[in-house]
Fold these 2 entries.
Entry 1:
Amino acid sequence: MKTFLFAWNPKKWNWTTLEQSIDQIEQTGRASEKWSVVSHKKIQPGDRVFLIRLGKQPKGIMGAGFVVSPVFLSSHWDGSDRLVNRVMIDFEVILNPEKEPLLNLDILKQGNLGKVNWTPQSSGIKINPDVTDELEAVWFDFLTTQKIRHNPFKPTEKEKQKVYTEGTPNQVIVTKYERNPFARKTCIDHYGLSCIICDFDFEKQYGELGKGFIHVHHLKQVADIGKEYQIDPIKDLRPVCPNCHAMIHKRKEPYSIDEMKEKINTNK
């Protein structure tokens, strides 16, 4: 997964539907927007996206999401006959600069992040992979500590993502904590890529195809996550295989990790 920096300059384009997009995220968990991309030969569906506001104060990162389409040609925003390369982005977080703080340039210029050009002339620039882990960590800390109107990590009933495992109708609820690259990486760096319950390792079983694959389970129930909740990826997340993840959610109140281990040991 590569990471790209997209830019919005309100001096050039008035985002009149900004609040509607934020409301849509609150209701459904995502808002789809098409954006021009200069790195059209490198970007692919699944790549990570950060959106930065430039042009006038306040300046800073105001959104994040993932690319969900191949590159396509579309009319330029200025209404001319020019065609530009675009991608569809599913934003999971968008902040309104007039109503809440942004991850500002002063913070982005510190440490290794200072190596990045945060004021590019084009949109859709690839970010050096050497700094993406630090960027994800800073962004995660920002979102979970600042006063933001719509807590981007509080899942709603409509926002729950359903994941199905082959051969079973059971659905698994995956929260934004589990999908967030920083939270996921921190959990895996600590616990490894083997299932914490059954010890299944996808890379050992499938080779290169399974490398890096594992679900991450959030121990705290979705209904218990409140506005002031702050996650500790090591304390609150665990790596689990899709089968164990499905079994954890077999009942309304998810089984605990210890209960699942006991069931496996009992049936050996």
Note: Residues 129-145 form the longest helix (17 residues).
Entry 2:
Amino acid sequence: MKSPLEISRKLARQWYQSETRSNRLLGFSEWPLCVSIGTPSAREFSQDPGAVQRHADSWRSVAIGSVEWGAVSYRAGAEPILLPSQWCLRNPSEWVAATMDATIGKEYADLEHIVEGVDAAFRALLVTQRSLWIKKDPGEVIAAADLALRLQPRCAMGRPLRLLAEHGVDTKFFERNAGLLTRLLDERFEGEPSEVGLNTFLGALEESEHWVLVAPLCDGLLPFKKLRLTTAELMESRLPGSRLIVVENEKCFHQLPEIADTIAVLGCGLDLQWMGAPWLKEKKVAYWGDIDSWGLLMLGRSRELCPNVSALLMSKDIYELYAPGSAVEEPVTAQVSPPCGLQADERNLYSYLLGLGKGRLEQEYIPKNEVGAEVGRWMVLNF
């Protein structure tokens, strides 16, 4: 037999279970919710009938929902006695009240206010992902949801996020709510903001420190096999070697071959301002990114900053060779027209990809031997 307090504690624990909370608040579970109370055993009745009576009395005092009763017979008793069998709660409000937990009550009230104030597209996310709003003022969460409906890819147009005053938020709003905004935008744009990062997705200048991986592709150029630098430091750091390969994604390091007198910089994303560094003019520079609109946008930007940049493995031939079975849909494209900085064949590739159902081929799907052959050809041309 369970007391009201025991079951209340169990109901309270269920609030913190994401799937249970979602099912109950979003209507995926059937109401009423009936929890078994359990009946005293014959031994409990015979050894301490007073405890059984107190158990029944404690349930008679419960005013939330409804308690179902039934007659139970015991050998030690002269006649059947009425005992509670189930506690039935009719809706989420009664479930929360039954937890007898003031903190959960406050959270439920905040969540109710939030859900009423946001677009239906965001409600399931906010109910499921309690961590997105639990430490925030409900009004700020509603404001973030409203903003997420108005933001579009590349709408920052190269400005820092804090300067997007036209959206009616203060200069610290994006800083306070970056994680929440990213997840809300994921709901609209199929996860693209999380994949490329909020700044990249919105086309905003990255003001925080952005760390990249710097790796020599041969022995002797650096005293380290790998090291990390911020892009701000990289702009001021005159790297050794006569050649430099800039790689969009850090995870592709293992695909690069050994190559003399060459250093790779990996994981820059859209943070490419460092490529305007004067010391880069003395080097042979190549860029390798995903074959999609964002990868070609980054190629164009890198070439605007460093005009002698060569593209590696970013051609229509490479795409068509490896796209079958590996190409995927690009949920959000960088822009409608080809970016500045692209050559004629690259502009044609950009437009070609936009017209495809699966216009995205990520770097990691290109075999290592193909990468090695392409880098080798580039090295011969830039010896």
Note: Residues 4-100 form one domain.
